[in-house]
Amino acid sequence: xxxxxxxxxxxxxxxxxxxxxxxxxxxxxxxxxxxxxxxxxxxxxxxxxxxxxxxxxxxxxxxxxxxxxxxxxxxxxxxxxxxxxxxxxxxxxxxxxxxxxxxxxxxxxxxxxxxxxxxxxxxxxxxxxxxxxxxxxxxxxxxxxxxxxxxxxxxxxxxxxxxxxxxxxxxxxxxxxxxxxxxxxxxxxxxxxxxxxxxxxxxxxxxxxxxxxxxxxxxxxxxxxxxxxxxxx
Length: 233
Prior knowledge:
Layout: E1 6-7, E2 16-17, E3 48-55, E4 58-63, E5 69-73, E6 76-83, E7 89-93, E8 96-101, E9 104-109, E10 112-123, E11 133-139, E12 144-149, E13 154-159, E14 164-176, E15 181-186, E16 193-203, E17 210-219, E18 222-230
Antiparallel strand pairs: 1-2, 3-4, 3-10, 4-5, 5-6, 6-7, 7-8, 8-9, 9-10, 11-12, 11-18, 12-13, 13-14, 14-15, 15-16, 16-17, 17-18
């Protein structure tokens, strides 16, 4: 079993565990390549994400690439492998198990369990839909997007429902592959911004659509919050 994150203090909130292994800031150089983002931010080849509403109250997100299940909670993510079960489908990894049949699911940990119902599904974004983009973050009120180029360290920020747009170089100020956490900062002193990406269940606050990452964009003295997804070739 290959874990994306090591869970700790596993209660009903699926608390995140593991040690952070941050890398130093990466300088920007001519012809620099885009950084490799943590795999936990991607669907892993799955064609869709599913949002689950659970009791006790919690939202989960899953994606099911061939031969595994990716599970995101409010505090992290896990990669689970198939297990034998009489009916439905069951996946296990460490002290976490996910059993579902139809639109119902039970998530069990060493300290309890969640009873969940499928709430919404969303097709995963693809490179055909977003050419040249390896990660897209977006949010509402006002509508905004932040897209990262797949081949160079550049971010395109589109703000205020598309009325403002700028493409800027960035540098990596923090990268934790185990936790699926990335912090990017502007590569230009005259146009500062910070983009924080962290693996975890995220539901669009207007549509309810599921995503595997929470995104926070700080620019021009404002802070924008939303959801995001890595986009593989």
